[in-house]
Amino acid sequence: xxxxxxxxxxxxxxxxxxxxxxxxxxxxxxxxxxxxxxxxxxxxxxxxxxxxxxxxxxxxxxxxxxxxxxxxxxxxxxxxxxxxxxxxxxxxxxxxxxxxxxxxxxxxxxxxxxxxxxxxxxxxxxxxxxxxxxxxxxxxxxxxxxxxxxxxxxxxxxxxxxxxxxxxxxxxxxxxxxxxxxxxxxxxxxxxxxxxxxxxxxxxxxxxxxxxxxxxxxxxxxxxxxxxxxxxxxxxxxxxxxxxxxxxxxxxxxxxxxxxxxxxxxxxxxxxxxxxxxxxxxxxxxxxxxxxxxxxxxxxxxxxxxxxxxxxxxxxxxxxxxxxxxxxxxxxxxxxxxxxxxxxxxxxxxxxxxxxxxxxxxxxxxxxxxxxxxxxxxxxxxxxxxxxxxxxxxxxxxxxxxxxxxxxxxxxxxxxxxxxxxxxxxxxxxxxxxxxxxxxxxxxxxxxxxxxxxxxxxxxxxxxxxxxxxxxxxxxxxxxxxxxxxxxxxxxxxxxxxxxxxxxxxxxxxxxxxxxxxxxxxxxxxxxxxxxxxxxxxxxxxxxxxxxxxxxxxxxxxxxxxxxxxxxxxxxxxxxxxxxxxxxxxxxxxxxxxxxxxxxxxxxxxxxxxxxxxxxxxxxxxxxxxxxxxxxxxxxxxxxxxxxxxxxxxxxxxxxxxxxxxxxxxxxxxxxxxxxxxxxxxxxxxxxxxxxxxxxxxxxxxxxxxxxxxxxxxxxxxxxxxxxxxxxxxxxxxxxxxxxxxxxxxxxxxxxxxxxxxxxxxxxxxxxxxxxxxxxxxxxxxxxxxxxxxxx
Length: 792
Fold this sequence. Notes:
The protein is mainly alpha-helical. Helix content is 58%, strand content 4%. Helix 5 packs antiparallel against helix 6 and helix 15 (343-356) packs antiparallel against helix 16.
């Protein structure tokens, strides 16, 4: 707290006159100095109460005047010295009371020469130290900030030549916002006493920084503006620059007429500067000490408020070079990085900031938001599934630990759990989100979706209605209401809900698709196709509308019509374009030697296959593919379907799945959304050579990789353009030979689908003149009927 001590053991030289009275005062000042140093020593070691007891010690002062005379002299002196500031009441009998009495007596002495002058100077310095100790004790023990501030002001006025008292009193006054300008003046005085004192320079920078912050917070016209301008002028003079106009507030360090600019241009012109007063005070602080980190932080804040983000980032980074644990600076720089899309960098900075200030709510909130950004990007990079979804969930869970009631975190975690198939956890997250934030319309909508999937339609309807009430421009809940009503057969209510969703969100593509399905179900195919086309206009890659439009064409036009065939082909080309290359090219398939087992490989065979170019990556090579051309080879067959439940396709798929010859290895890739008893029956009837792969909830690229891993030679999909198809697996060329069968009465449109299994009745040979329908696939006609029904 204090320095400025005089040598306690030194004896002052004899006075030129004054006799015993002067010597008595010399002894009194020496004794009082010991008391002050003792109290200060105890205070610095945390023994505040003991220091207070020493400072308030009652002791009779040995003087020749009566107590009444001393009191009268004291009151007269105190009133005179504090008239310009504030009167400080001193406890009678305390150390400071005795210092004041001694000071009054010394003012009365006229004889003593230079020795008396030195004694008065020492008493004045001691008086400053005493008020400084009293101010510290008042603030620490009593909490009387006003009295403490008055004591520090008195200390500085009493010790104008005491460097450390000025420095410490200024530092203490800095904690009182309305006294920042006084603190700055004290530190300017301290720097005048010793211009090379780095500690005083840093304290001045700190006081100017706090003064700038006070001016910024209180706006123009506050009472300290004139004082701040005077401080700027004093700083300019103190630092040795040319005299600057107070209004301009320029700080000149050299003859160039302005602050020397650093690498990011911090500084300001000396003339014509219209920057706010608080900014000029910040620059003065920077000119005083450019190694004081908080000034760089405040300049960064100013740049950020002006949307000068590059300059703000440079200021923040300079601040962190000086103070790597500056919590607010770390937080603000993290916010800048997050704004620029650097989620990882933002998370790292927010974590460092939180380490420096663990209980700062804004830092925790910012870190949680950055983790949500990181989770969203992980989902996007991972294609919405697999590893990306797992990393996203981990990020959201970390955010939840920081902000357990944050609605965005709870909502995003609910979405992630739902996509992972963890429906119970997803419901719990949405319920918690709505418990803390019942106005979250999106959470009401998503909770309704999960409840509907669970069969709780009544509560799902209430959730959708609440979401629509909270956000009338939110079309999704109205669309979902239409789906529920359509499922109940309430056509009018369903149509009204869909139309309300379109009115609320005209550009919401999915509702047009659903309205088209409703029109299809009531037989209005003209409106049905119009709605599908409107959906695709708004969202050209809307997969459901694309499938539905192709299927709808089969209801209103003959299959051989050119526009029907062309529509399938164009869809297939556009659909496959985004999926080609997602899997590595297939390895060459060598012809199987007689007696060769599945796991045997031969370098000679590999070379033969490579030289012949036997890659099954294009339909033109399929006819001569070794899998089909070699009668000695028993292929591995895979079936892919979402309809292996009580669905019409399952009654036709049962025979091929369960009746393959024993030597044929079969894989069934089951993507059925909701398995039932029929699903279990198919599994139970499957012989030992049939392996079932549960792929429910898997992304198409993951299914395609699994097909590759299983070594499937011929992959047959059983869905076509009907609901829940996995045509994307075929588009990625998961198997050397791919075919479509049973589920759809037309082409897939995919060139990657090599065969369509049919018969002469369904697709007569064009040479007979009975049909002109074209297909992308090569037709493989079975004798008799192309499918076989198996009753339950």
